[in-house]
From TrEMBL:
GO terms for cellular component: cytosol. It comes from the Eukaryota. This is Uncharacterized protein. GO terms for biological process: deoxyribonucleotide biosynthetic process. InterPro entries: RNR_small_fam. One of its GO terms (molecular function) is ribonucleoside-diphosphate reductase activity, thioredoxin disulfide as acceptor.
């Protein structure tokens, strides 16, 4: 006897014998191209670097495929090349750009559309870019696609034997300039909708210092300098058919607004003084509730820039519990109880992987294992505040609240203190009206 599993199950034809369906035909896009955008202002090593990405072009800008390209080298303060031992031995002097150098060069970035500010971050863009690449991609992607940004997978941070560090040493081993490129990791450029034509989009970038950007081994008293020799932007434009352009303009006039739903990522940091057993009371966000939060602890010396350390060396520092407070609630339901010395940290590791979504499938991972999380510089805590934090196709209900982070230590914090770096994601909405004026958190009525 043959029957259906359920009467609601519908008839289907598998693709291999479907001779009637044809792929769709592109009738909207006439062409697309990458365009090199030089500096708009005179070059200065310390910035700012300003780019006019569109300049009222009739084409539509593909924001997600916008890059900054840097050419740099590393010298001593007098401008002379410093030779390393080719064997990179423990006793030899070595140096390299910090991981994810193309994204790390950027300290602060702003975006104006028609002279109105639509994005302005803190001075922590390097951490934002590093967290995104570190947590979301596997080692294969890091060592292939992301190598264009100077990202190489480290098995241990601040260890000269790490293959990632040695690969970055080889980038600058010869006295030749190095070229790297990075996507511009800001809110509007992390969503897929095109920017309307006739907009003037201006990007302004400020760089980090050499002390922040160089990681060295056995440097002694030697001071090095990372020199940006050239910088330009690459933008990707679409040329649409006149008919579609006219229809889009008519729709804009009718509805008064074109909207861009997106995820807004905000970075905060706060200082924890020396010899403390808890973090100072702090409220990091006072607006709507974030979707999810990631945080890590780094030494104050590395955070402020030291060529003998990496600013991405996140350690436990004797933390015994951590939790998020909002709306009178605690995430997780009880504070994470930690004892890294006695291997009591697995719940925090699972929470981090859960917040990213890697623990729920077998197709993606970030190549961070429990040993790396425990003691190799990858102690990053993740918290889901939204029940559908991973589903970017849905908005959450807007909850106005204060969000604070509670940290307690079983041993006193180090002599120079710590910084807690916090990356939080929020729902956001931007609109463009008929005059191309940007409106943040714009709702259609």
């Amino acid at each position: 006897m043959i029957s259906r599993m359920d009467i609601k199950s519908e008839d289907v034809i598998i693709d291999e014998i479907d001779f009637t369906t044809m792929p769709g035909t592109n009738t909207a896009v006439l062409g697309s191209k990458f365009v090199k955008v030089p500096l708009r202002n005179a070059y200065q090593a310390e910035g700012p670097w300003e780019f006019s990405l569109t300049n009222h072009s009739r084409n539509y800008l593909d924001l997600k495929r916008t890059y900054l390209v840097f050419t740099f080298d590393i010298t001593d303060t007098a401008g002379n090349f410093v030779q390393m031992d080719s064997k990179l031995l423990e006793t030899s002097m070595s140096y390299a750009p910090i991981n994810n150098i193309a994204g790390s060069i950027i300290k602060t970035v702003t975006l104006h559309i028609n002279s109105q500010l639509v994005y302005g971050n803190s001075t922590n863009h390097a951490y934002k870019s590093y967290f995104e690449n570190l947590l979301n991609y596997s080692q294969d992607i890091k060592d292939s696609t992301l190598s264009a940004a100077g990202f190489y997978h480290d098995t241990a941070v601040e260890e000269f034997t790490s293959l990632g560090y040695q690969k970055r040493c080889l980038m600058v081993f010869n006295p030749k300039p190095v070229q790297v490129a990075t996507n511009i990791s800001i809110d509007l450029m992390n969503q897929s909708r095109l920017l309307l034509n006739s907009c003037k989009a201006t990007l302004t970038v400020y760089p980090n210092t050499s002390d922040f950007l160089i990681e060295g081994h056995n440097l002694g008293t030697k001071k090095l300098k990372l020199n940006i020799r050239d910088v330009y932007a690459l933008v990707h434009e679409y040329e649409l058919t006149d008919g579609l352009s006219n229809e889009l303009e008519a729709a804009l006039i009718e509805h008064k607004l074109i909207q861009y739903p997106m995820i807004s990522t905000q970075v905060r940091s706060f200082y924890i003084g020396p010899s403390r057993l808890d973090a100072p009371a702090n409220t990091l966000f006072t607006s709507k509730m974030p979707r999810r939060i990631f945080l890590g602890l780094v030494s104050a010396e590395a955070y402020n820039g030291s060529q003998k350390t990496s600013p991405f060396n996140f350690k436990p520092y004797g933390l015994k519990n951590v939790h998020i407070d909002y709306c009178g609630k605690t995430v997780p339901g009880r504070p994470l109880e930690l004892d890294f010395e006695n291997n009591k940290f697995i719940e925090a590791f699972i929470q981090m992987q859960e917040a990213i979504g890697h623990s729920r499938n077998n197709s993606t991972c970030n190549s961070i294992n429990t040993q790396m999380f425990k003691e190799k510089g990858f102690t990053i805590y993740g918290f889901e505040l939204s029940p559908v934090a991973l589903d970017n196709s849905l908005f959450e209900m807007v909850v106005q609240t204060n969000v604070s982070i509670r940290l307690d230590f079983k041993e006193k914090t180090p002599e120079n203190g710590l910084y807690c770096v916090v990356v939080a994601e929020f729902d956001a909405l931007m609109g463009l009206d008929t005059l191309r004026n940007p409106i943040l958190d714009a709702t259609a009525h």
